[in-house]
Each structure stands twice: as structure tokens, then as C-alpha cells.
Write a structure and sequence with these properties.
With 427 residues, this protein is of the alpha/beta class. The protein contains 16 helices and 13 strands. Strand 4, helix 6 (116-124) and strand 5 (128-132) form a beta-alpha-beta unit.
């Protein structure tokens, strides 16, 4: 096609960060564009198996490492470990890794942790977009989010905006030293200094894609300019051929819809006693359960009503569940909303406490703190969710709103408009 573009998609993180980029890449390729997906080396086989061009970038994090995930999923210290200790010291490497693919691209679509994207876009004079997966990334004082290191903020959503403005301002002061490597690199490249690189200055002047539904968070007056709220984009395959296993299919077909317990694709590597306590809760409720456990070993003494599997596409299993218990990640929450089922959320870190609070306010969920989760607390919460029909009814109403959105189409339309902004004078 004559208006075909070369689009560079770049992200760092877990499957929760990668899968939306895959969804965008596959759709944009279907529209006739050339797609390069730049991400961590561990995803090479997955990306190339889908027929997309792959380019490795650093840091090469290892989400499957339990010790790594234990540190990352710490409610208080997780963001500092990720940004200050892991991402920022590698920003020069990231810039070097991306220089070659950026030089050939017509536009860039970058995840929040790809701090080199904006610099390279400025250097090569090409338009770029930031992909934002959750409302907490916008730090709005009009729709304040729960801050994971400060869990008490869950109860302050209705506090005056001046309070939230002061709280965020204090946060800016506390973490301003985290970004020194970024400031040093910008100085060495002759680029202007940024005052708030983790807040207002992180956004693109061309396009910011809010890849979440309006049922999760509506546009706010203090969102960055050039923001398009497209909605959720979905992808949930381990590889091109992933589907529900025959054994899981047989289990689902056998009787009443089960409770599904999952920790997504990141927190699952720091599960602790989540799965053993969940199995006990299901037994106490006399309910069938599916545990999606990753590489955690199942207990051979669990009853036959509790079935354990390493993975299943959420889009296929959630619609067949009575309820889902999960960690509150952006992708898992989106799939549960689309499926129209009640949720019990056990947040581990980052945006997850905020998603839990938003789902409670939406009337589709309850939540339990990670360190308060036990067979006893899960049993009580699940009994409340399953015995009270208002949760199921509300979940179905919200699901219709989510299903009416077309986040993939709207986001790709916005990206195509972005790609046409490339200056004709570009070298």
C-alpha cells in the first residue's frame, strides 16, 4: 500500500506490558504496515513466532525470577527498585539499543518505562506516542488513584483536590533523585533538561494513548494534552497456538462454573501461599476451582474439585467462571470486566491497589490485602460475592459497556494519524 509506514513499538516489563503492544502490532500489520517490536530478549521467540520483527533492548529483566519478583512486588519499595535500581541505570543502554530501529521508523509507540523513546524521537524528528495502560499513571488530582506505597490513600478518593495536589507534590520531591541517569544522558545529548521526567514531562507532545476503558477511569482536565482514550486492547496467548487444554475443557464442561484463581503473569512468580489458601477456600465453599499457577507446583492432596493448570487464555476461561480471584493487573482486570463476572482482588503492587479500589467503587468486586489473604478471609469475601446477586448483575451491565468499545480499532486509527505527522524534511 502506498501509505504503508514502518512503526516501532517498544516496551519493557511483563506480559501485562507486552500483550497490548502485540495486539497493536498484529492489527497494524494487518492494515499493511511494517512493524518492529522492541522489547526484552526473553520475548524474542514469542514475538518472532507471531511473524513480527523483533529487536532486543535493555535492561533484560527476568520476570520469571522469584527473587526479582519478590523485590518488584513489594508494595512500598517495588517502584523504587524497578525505576531507580533497574531502569534508570540502563537508560544509556536502552538509548543505544533503540537508536538503529528508530532511525528506520516513521513513528514510535512506547510503553511508560521506555524512557529513551522521547529522546530518540526528538533527535530523529519523528512523532511518537506513549501507551498508558492504567489511570494511575496520569496522577490526576480530579480522579486520584491509590498509591501503592501509601495504601491509606484508598480511603481518601473524595478528599479535596488540594490535598491530592500536595500529596503528589511531596512525591515529586521524594523521587526526584531517581532520574539522575536520565538527566545526565539528556545533558550529554544536548537535549533540554526535564523538571518532572516521571510526571508531566514523561508524556508525548504528539499522542498519549489511554488503553483502558472509561468504566475504569474517565478523561480528566489534568490529563496530558493530545490524549486519546481508546479503551482496552486484548491479547492473551502464550504463543500463536495457545488455547484451553483438553483437560481444562473437560473440567469446565463437567459441572457448575468454577471460581478461577490467578495471579496473572508477573505476581504468579511471587505467589507465596496464595494458591494453597485459595484451594482451601474453594473447599470450604464446596465450590469447584481452577487454579492458574504458572510454574508453582500443585498440592497432590487437593481434592478433584480443585484443578490446577499452568496457564489458560483469560478470554476463554473467564466467561465460563462464576467469579475470578486475581491480583488486579491491568490486563487481568480488563479481561474480567469484559467477561462480566464478579471479582475478588488481592493486589500485590504498582497499579493493582488502585485497580482494586476502582473495581470496588464500580460495584463489581471486593478486595483483600495481600498479607491479609487467607482461606478464612477468602471464604468470607467469596461467599459475599457469590451469594449477593447485585455483583453479578452489575458485572454484566459493565461488561456491555466494555464490549461496546473498540479499543484496538480506535488506538490503531490514532497511531495511523500519528504516523502521518512525520516531517518531510526528516533525514
Amino acid at each position: 500500500m502506498t501509505d504503508s509506514k514502518h512503526m516501532l513499538l517498544a516496551t519493557i516489563g511483563s506480559f501485562g506490558d507486552l500483550h497490548p503492544m502485540i495486539a497493536l502490532g498484529l492489527e497494524l500489520r494487518q492494515r499493511g504496515h511494517r512493524i518492529t517490536l522492541a522489547t526484552m530478549e526473553i520475548y524474542r521467540q514469542k514475538i518472532e513466532g507471531l511473524g513480527l520483527e523483533f529487536h532486543p533492548i535493555r535492561p533484560d529483566l527476568r520476570p520469571e525470577d522469584p527473587e526479582f519478583m519478590r523485590r518488584i512486588m513489594d508494595l512500598k519499595k517495588g517502584p523504587e527498585v524497578l525505576i531507580r535500581e533497574l531502569i534508570m541505570p540502563s537508560v544509556r543502554d536502552m538509548h543505544a539499543d533503540l537508536s538503529e530501529p528508530v532511525s528506520q521508523a516513521d513513528c514510535i509507540i512506547a510503553g511508560e518505562l521506555v524512557f529513551a523513546a522521547g529522546m530518540l524521537a526528538d533527535q530523529h524528528r519523528i512523532p511518537w506516542a506513549m501507551a498508558v495502560l492504567q489511570p494511575s499513571s496520569f496522577f490526576s488530582v480530579h480522579d486520584p488513584s491509590v498509591l501503592a506505597p501509601l495504601p491509606f490513600t484508598k480511603f481518601l478518593h473524595s478528599a479535596p483536590t488540594i490535598f491530592h495536589r500536595l500529596l503528589i507534590g511531596a512525591g515529586k520531591l521524594v523521587i526526584r533523585s531517581w532520574t539522575k541517569p536520565l538527566a545526565d544522558l539528556r545533558r550529554d545529548l544536548g537535549l533540554p533538561k526535564l523538571s518532572r521526567p516521571l510526571f508531566e514531562d514523561k508524556y508525548s507532545p504528539h499522542l498519549n494513548l489511554a488503553l483502558f476503558s472509561k468504566v475504569v477511569g474517565e478523561p480528566q482536565p489534568d490529563w496530558p494534552a493530545k490524549t486519546v482514550q481508546a479503551g482496552f486492547v486484548f491479547y492473551d496467548r502464550l504463543d500463536h497456538h495457545t488455547t484451553i487444554s483438553p483437560a481444562l475443557q473437560t473440567f469446565l464442561d463437567a459441572c457448575q462454573p468454577p471460581i478461577v484463581f490467578t495471579l496473572g503473569t508477573a505476581a504468579v512468580y511471587s505467589a507465596g501461599a496464595f494458591y494453597s489458601e485459595s484451594a482451601q477456600a474453594a473447599s470450604r465453599l464446596n465450590r469447584r476451582a481452577v487454579l492458574l499457577m504458572g510454574n508453582n507446583p500443585p498440592d497432590p492432596n487437593w481434592p478433584p474439585e480443585v484443578a490446577a493448570f499452568d496457564y489458560a487464555p483469560f478470554s476463554e476461561i473467564f466467561p465460563r467462571a462464576a467469579c475470578v480471584v486475581h491480583q488486579g493487573g491491568a490486563g487481568t482486570t480488563a479481561q474480567a470486566l469484559r467477561a462480566g463476572i464478579p471479582q475478588l482482588i488481592v493486589p500485590y503492587g504498582f497499579d493493582q491497589p488502585d485497580h482494586a479500589a476502582r473495581m470496588e467503587r464500580l460495584g463489581v468486586a471486593r478486595s483483600i490485602g495481600r498479607h491479609s489473604y487467607s482461606a478464612e478471609s477468602a471464604t468470607a469475601a467469596l461467599r459475599h460475592l457469590l451469594d449477593n446477586p447485585r455483583y453479578a448483575l452489575r458485572a454484566k451491565v459493565v461488561a456491555k459497556e466494555v464490549q461496546a468499545e473498540d479499543g484496538l480499532k480506535d488506538s490503531c486509527d490514532a497511531i495511523e494519524r500519528l504516523s502521518r505527522l512525520r516531517p518531510s524534511s526528516r533525514p
